[in-house]
Amino acid sequence: MTAGRSAHHHTALGPRPGSALRAGMGTVVAASAAPYGYTLTIWSCGAVLIDYRGKPSVGDVFLFLAGAVLGFSTLGLLAQGPLANRRSIDRRRDRVIAGALDWAAVGAAVGIVALLANVHGWVAWPLGSFVGTLVYLAGAGLQLGLVAANQRTLTNRSSGEGGGSDACAPAESPAAIVRRGALDGPGPG
């Protein structure tokens, strides 16, 4: 930022329209990342099951619904145990980057459900939505955790700290994270 420029990009009449639009879009995208990914997952899991099993009966639809609710509830209960004392990851930048990487969690969930779609009988409907929900939510949580840890490492490296600062660091693009491998730790500084 140059001297005399505000971080908020104000004009004589208030914030610039482009700045407000970007802030609004960033807020909406960050808030929508996980629900959007889960919508893609559960719809795609249902579509895969329909392709393999044919049109579901009303009872099958309720079994699918029950499996999804049970999967969500199971993961919610597991997360409340040892993770109850941890802070949630609320940085919008982290959620947006993790959401951009959602193809991995969505793809894994839908792929596993495609393998389970041949399970005999009515069990495929609740099993598919249960497993699809668990795999997506666990995968999305892992992605978010990796992105947040990567951003903290970059922040600490740029500020010279060794602790867990939550200050904003320059964001690495999702493509750069994928290129160097999100599990490999921080890239060159």
Kindly, what is the distance between the CA atoms of the first and last residues, rounded to a whole number of angstroms? Answer: 21 Å
Estimate nothing, just give the exact number of structural domains: 1
Low-confidence stretches: 1-6, 162-172, 177-189
- Overall geometric form: elongated
Question: What does this protein look like?
Answer:
With 189 residues, this protein is mainly alpha-helical. It has one domain (32-157, 172-183). Helices cover 67% and strands 2% of the residues. Strands 1-2 form a two-stranded antiparallel sheet. The chain is elongated and about 60 Å long. The two termini are 21 Å apart. Mean pLDDT is 78; it is low at 1-6, 162-172 and 177-189.
Please give a quick description of this structure.
The protein is an all-alpha fold. The protein has helices at residues 17-53, 58-80, 92-100, 103-116, 124-159, 174-180, and strands at residues 10-11, 14-15.
